[in-house]
Amino acid sequence: MDGGAAPGEIDKTIVNFIRVVRGADVRVSVAETLDAVAVVNFVGWEDREILKQGLGLAVAKTPEEKTRFNACFDAFFAAVADNDDHDEDEDRPDGPVETDDKLAQMLLDADQSELMVAMEEAATEVGIENIKFFTQRGLYTQRIMRQMGLEGLDAAIREAQAGEGSGQGQGQGEGGDPSGQGGGEAATLEAARARLFEATRDLVEKRLSLYGSETSRDLREGRLRRSRLGNLDRRDQEEMRRLVAKIAKRLAALHSRKPKRRNRGTLDLRRTMRRNYANDGIMFDLEWKRKKIAKPKVMAICDVSGSVATVARFLLQFLYALHDILNDVRSFAFSGKLIETSDFFKRHDVDTAVDHVMNAVGYMPTDYGHSFENFRELGFLDDLDKRTTVVILGDGRTNNTEPRADILKEIHERSKRILWLNPEPPPLWGTGDSEILRYRPYCHMHREVNTLAHLERFVNELVHVVKASS
Amino acid sequence: MLEQHAAKLADIDAITNGFAELGYICSKSIATAIFIAGNLEKPILVEGPAGVGKTELANTMAAFMDLPMIRLQCYEGLDEAKALYEWRYAKQLLYTQILRDKIGEVLGGAETLAASMDKLHQHSDLFFSEQFVAPRPILQAMREEGGSILLIDEIDKADHEFEAFLLEVLSEFQVSIPELGTIKAKQKPFVFLTSNNTRELSDALKRRCLHLYVPFPEAKLEQQILRARVPDLTDALMQQLVAFVQGVRELDLKKHPSVSETLDWARALMLLNASELDGDLVRQTLNVILKFEEDITVVDRQALELVRMSEKAVRR
Question: Is it true that domain B3-78+137-213 has CATH number 3.40.1050.10?
C-alpha cells in the first residue's frame, strides 16, 4: 500500500515468501498466493502482527501448517526487515565508480544500518533467492561483496598501503591495536574488509537456510524414496517414517471418496416424480435410493524376519494409514511361526504396534511351511472369501524347510487374488533356498518391492484394484 | 459490500469492541480474521476443538452486522436437495392437473397435431421455473437483499460429495440450477464454515477459504470471557477456576474441557454458592467439565495438586 515501492516489487517479496513457506512443507496453491497478495494489498506492510495473521489465514490451512508458517514468517521478515522501509531509487543513480569510495567510507564510518541496507540491496541484485546448495555459499558471498564495490575497496586498501609506506612503523608503535584508530588507514580498512566478509557470509548462510531448505529436502526425500529399505541408516529411519506418513496421507486423500452409507432403501422421491411425469404424475414406477455395497477385504501376511523386516514395517505403516479407505484390513506376521497382528494396530498407533509385532515374532529364522500351517490351523483360511485380496510380503527363503505350496494353492482358490511382494531383485529369485518359483504359480502378481517408491506404487495400485473390483 | 457493513468492519479495534459488547471476547487473531475476511469478502473456515465458540462467532457476527443468520447444520447424507434447493413437487403436480383442464383453451381449437404443438411451445415453460423452486439455506442466503451471514456448521460431518456442491457457492457466490441457470447472490453473504476436524477437508475447499484456527484460549482471555459471560463470579474464584481448567488441559485426557465447559462449571459453582475451590467441591463437580469416566478418574487423582496450583495462581 503506502510501502512506497512499485506493485511489481511487492509481488516479488510475496512470491519469495511463498517459496520459503512452500519450502517448509506448507502446501500453497496459486489461488492462495493470489489471496496472500490480496491480503497484503489490503492490510499493508506496516503492522507486522496483522500481516502475519492475515497471511496465515490465506496460506496455512492446518494447525501444523500454521506453526511452520509462523516460524517462516519470523525468519523471512527478520531477514528482509532492513531492506523494507527504505527507498530504493536513492542509490540507483550512483555509478559503480562512486560506490567504491562509498563502501570504504561506510566501513570506516562503521554505520552498521547503512551497511546492512547496502548488503541487502546487493544480495537482491545478485538474486540470492536462487541459492540452493551449501556449496554455493562462497560464490554468492563473493558476488554480493563485488556488487557492493569490493574492487574499489581493494584499490583503496592498496592505495593506502602505498601512501603510508614509510609511516607504517610509526603507526604500529603508537597503537598496537590493528582495528583501532591508531592502526593506520590500510590496516583499518583490512580489518573492515574482514568484518564485511564475515557479515556477508552470515547473510548468505541465513538465506541459504531460508531458500535452500526446499531443494535439499527434495533431494533427501528423493534419495530416501529410491534407496533400498534394507540398507537404511538408523538415522534415516525417523525421516523415513515421516515420509511414509506423508505419502500415505496423500494416497488417502486421493482415494478417500467413500460411498455414502445412508440413503439406501428409502424412496427417491425426486427421481420417482421425474420418471412418472409421463404417467400423469401417478406414482407407477418407484425409484429407490441405491448404494453399492462395497466390502473389500485386505489381508496382509508379512515375513518379518531379518532382511524383510524393514519393508514389512513400512508396508504395515502404509496399510494402516489407509484404514479409512481399506476399511477391512487384517494383518498377519510370521517368521518361525505366524500370528495375527490386527489387534496390535487397533490398540496402538502404527509405530508402537510395529514394535510390538517385531518383538512378538520378528527376527527369527523363517519357516514358510510352518507359518502357512499356522495360518490354516488358526482357521484364517475360513475367513477368506471371493472379496479378499491377500498381500504376501516375503523373499520366499525357507531355510530348506518344506515350503507347503499346497496351502498357498488353497489360499489362492479361496481368495480373490494373491499379490506377492518380494524384496529381492529378480536375479536372486529361485537361487539357493529361495522357493519363490514354487509359490509363484499361485500368485496373481509377483513383483520386486524394496524401495519406498516401489511401495508407494504398489499401495496406490492396490487401492485402485480393491476399490474398482468391489 | 454495502456501505453500512463496510463502516462496521473499518478497523480491528472496532470489531473487538463491538464483539465484546455482544458478550463475545475475541483474541486478536479472531478479530483480524473477521476484519480481513469481511473486507476481502472471502469465506472463512473456522477450525478448532469443540466448544471454543466457533458457532458462537458466526452468531455474534450476525448480531454485530445486524444481518439475518442462516444456518446449515451438516450431517452425513446431507445433499443438495436439503442444502441448496428443491422443487415443489406437490405444486408441480397440481400444475399439471390444472394444465390438463385448461389445455383445450390454451390450444384454442388448433386443427392438427403440429399446430397444437406449435401453440404449446409458445407458452412459457412454467414447470421448471422459479415459482416452483423451494429455496434451502444456501439459496436463501443468496437471495437476501441486504446480505446475510451463512453458517455452514460442522462441514466435516457432511460427505465428500457435499463439499463439491459448496465449491461454486464459496468461490463465485452463485448457485447453478440446471433447469433455471445460474442464480447469483444479490449481496455476497458472509460465509462461515466450521469444522471439528473429524476428517480432513479437501484441498479444493480449503483453497477457497481463509483458514482460522481457534485454539483453547490463554488464561487471560479465558478470564475475560468468564467475566463477560458470568459477571457475578468473584475475581478470586474466577482466577482459580481458570488456572484449574488450564491445568486440566495439560493432562493427557480423551477430551479436554473447552470454554463452554468452563462456563458451565462457573455457573454450577455460582449455584452452589462456592467462594473458592477445594478438593471436595472439585470432586463433586468434575462431571461438569469432563465427559468421560476415564478422564474423571485421571483428574480426580491429581485434583488436590491442581487445586493447590490454582490457589498459587490467585495469590500471584
Answer: no
